[in-house]
Amino acid sequence: MTFQVGDKVIYPNHGLGIVERIEEKTILGTTCGFFHLRIVANDTTVLVPVANVDGVGLRKAIDDAEVDRLFTLLGDGKIDNHQNWKGRFKDNSDKMRTGSIYDMADVLKSLTFLSKSKSLSFREKRMLDRAKALIISEVSEVMRLKALEVEEQVDRALEKCFTTKVRNINRSQARAASAKVAAKPQGVIAAKPQSVIAAKPQSVIAAKPQGVSVAKPPVVAASAKPAAAAPAKPVAAAAPAKPVAAPAAASKPVVAATAKAVVSAKPVMTAKTVKTVPPLVANRRAAARAS
Question: Which of residues 272 and 128 earns the better pLDDT score?
Fold first, then answer.
């Protein structure tokens, strides 16, 4: 690839440069041509051998059409991240050495997205800053805009990229969960029979029959036979004593109370027999009392 004086070129890991002149120099007996490049970022001069242009990755700056493609790439949501630090650093370093602005855009997306979830190492943080600065300097020179304006556009494109990335991750997780559920046989859960609790029979307490006091038949005590008093013999006396009759109560039968049981009937005492005094003895007694 040949360049002319005044061409804007990109020198890998240095950024945008302008070809100021082309000259030949003899070094160690060998004569070769060199491109004198002035690096815009730090205003330094770099000599690039004409024969080694492809080896160092020197290229022309992008045009307006490629700027649109660049911002589309920054916001597409496609981010490749290696979990292994060594593998990730090696891949990013190889991309930075190519000098391609699209490779630098991949490095910028991956390291910026990673920095939102964890702290970057010193070397990765320096690589992130370098990739962002190279992209901003090239785009601002091509579009003739200030670096701050270009940086804002880059940040908006990155935010769009991260939003798309998160949405894609959520969708993929949802699809994986749905596929996992669909793979499992739907277990038919048999409805458990409702346990029927039999109603316990109400314990019927039979009403005890009210005790009916049966009136016992009245116990009639054996009626005591009236004791017939022995007939008293007439006593020949002045006033003959009348025979003593047995008490009336003794002659009547004793009946027990109806409700109360008669335990035992008391024996009925009979009247004593009155002895008859002979008339002769009675006369003597009377004569003795009179005297």
Answer: 128
